[in-house]
Write a structure and sequence with these properties.
2 strands, 8 helices, two-stranded antiparallel sheet, mainly alpha
């Protein structure tokens, strides 16, 4: 999904930077509130960022100018909300562009909007919708991670189609082409990411229950005192 350096026309590169920046600024404010209110969550924040970095670095070639990979943003969006992930995801993309030549600086706005903004917002809304409808947390986690991954690639397909409309059929034909090629690799990757995110969630429940309780994502069973 990382659109490579210099691939987008300058006008579209600037446009996506302008669209992404307000979310980044609001995300900084969100992170500041979270860390001030609960400094003990900093380690969990770092884990969410590392999870995104590792998964999104597992790239494979896809359509021209881009690549396919898991995104890893669903977990952080459920834990801390989409605005916080707009910062963590953007920083991941920046480091990957600088250290791994994965993505680019001119295309950072476009990549941030698809992976660090659209994906996390989708994950957050899907998680809370599924919790209201079913109350089954692990299913909600799976769908949040998997569908956020898929939406990231839908947005990337839209970005590429807007920048490079097909000579015959324009935007729609170009979008169908890009999305169809992405789907070959991304559907199984999204399912795998959903399953992996559930496994990580199970680990967090076992080893960081206090932090999840602070985030109001789990409730401890009340302890009963038995009289002798």
């Amino acid at each position: 999904m990382h659109i490579m350096e210099g691939f987008l026309p300058p006008g579209w590169a600037v446009f996506w930077w302008i669209v992404a920046l307000p979310f980044f600024i609001l995300g900084l404010r969100s992170l500041t509130r979270i860390t001030k209110a609960n400094p003990e969550l900093k380690l969990l924040l770092a884990l969410a960022g590392a999870f995104t970095f590792v998964l999104s670095a597992l790239k494979m070639p896809s359509v021209s100018g881009s690549c396919a990979h898991p995104t890893g943003t669903g977990l952080g969006a459920v834990l801390f909300g989409p605005l916080a992930m707009s910062v963590l995801g953007s920083l991941v993309l920046l480091f990957q562009a600088l250290l791994l030549a994965h993505g680019g600086l001119t295309t950072l706005g476009a990549n941030a909007f698809s992976m660090a903004i659209a994906g996390p917002f989708a994950a957050y809304w899907i998680y809370h919708l599924m919790m209201r409808l079913s109350g089954k947390q692990k299913i909600a986690i799976f769908l949040a991670a998997a569908l956020a991954d898929l939406l990231t690639y839908v947005i990337t397909s839209i970005q590429l189609a807007l920048a490079f409309p097909a000579p015959a059929g324009g935007f729609v034909a170009s979008f169908v082409k890009f999305a169809g090629i992405f789907a070959v690799t991304q559907v199984p990757l999204a399912i795998s990411e959903g399953l992996l995110t559930v496994l990580v969630w199970n680990w967090l429940q076992s080893y960081t229950p206090q932090e999840l309780e602070l985030l109001k994502l789990i409730k401890r069973e009340p302890q009963t005192n038995e009289s002798i």
